[in-house]
Write a sequence for this structure.
């Protein structure tokens, strides 16, 4: 028997968004296509780290992400109702299309009608399915996603609040501030000052 260990490091917000509703262990039984993908990724990682060709660490890291995605796909397919939030939305074709649209153009001035068109469903169907799978409405999700995008820029950059606000879809510093405080519990300025 071979036991391989590893870990993924996520920031607190990313962990909450991606892994917050997953069980502590996801068992992928042998013989499944996901198990084959995991086995392939582990073998490829082993080759990269054993032989150390150029960029081996980078390739190994990306292979590990591919492996994680296969495990998440398996879990979502096996128990789609056991997961909520962003990962669960990927299991619903209409919600997945809307999530893709929001992630591709977060600064766009989206309406529920626009998003319903992106998901090829009516507004009421989108609202119900999005809330049922993701746990919040599409515009609430968009607000949180925008704040997720703004946070590292506030913490790590030197851009003005107005520039960050515009880049993530808010027309003014005050609009960003209201949304940021609602999601993060502090103002953007206080958040930036706490960087370290």
């Amino acid at each position: 028997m071979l036991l391989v260990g590893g870990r993924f490091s996520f920031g607190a917000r990313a962990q909450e968004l991606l892994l917050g509703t997953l069980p502590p262990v996801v068992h992928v039984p042998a013989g499944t296509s996901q198990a084959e993908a995991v086995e392939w990724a582990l073998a490829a990682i082993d080759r990269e780290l054993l032989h150390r060709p150029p960029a081996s660490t980078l390739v190994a890291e990306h292979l590990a992400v591919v492996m994680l995605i296969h495990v998440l796909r398996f879990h979502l397919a096996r128990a789609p109702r056991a997961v909520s939030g962003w990962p669960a939305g990927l299991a619903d074709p209409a919600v997945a299309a809307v999530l893709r649209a929001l992630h591709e153009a977060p600064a766009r001035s989206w309406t529920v009608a626009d998003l319903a068109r992106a998901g090829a469903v009516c507004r009421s169907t989108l609202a119900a399915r999005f809330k049922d799978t993701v746990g919040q409405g599409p515009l609430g999700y968009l607000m949180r996603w925008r704040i997720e995008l703004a946070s590292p820029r506030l913490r790590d950059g030197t851009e003005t609040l107005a520039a960050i606000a515009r880049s993530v879809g808010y027309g003014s510093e005050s609009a960003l501030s209201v949304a940021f405080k609602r999601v993060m519990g502090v103002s953007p300025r206080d958040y930036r000052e706490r960087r370290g």
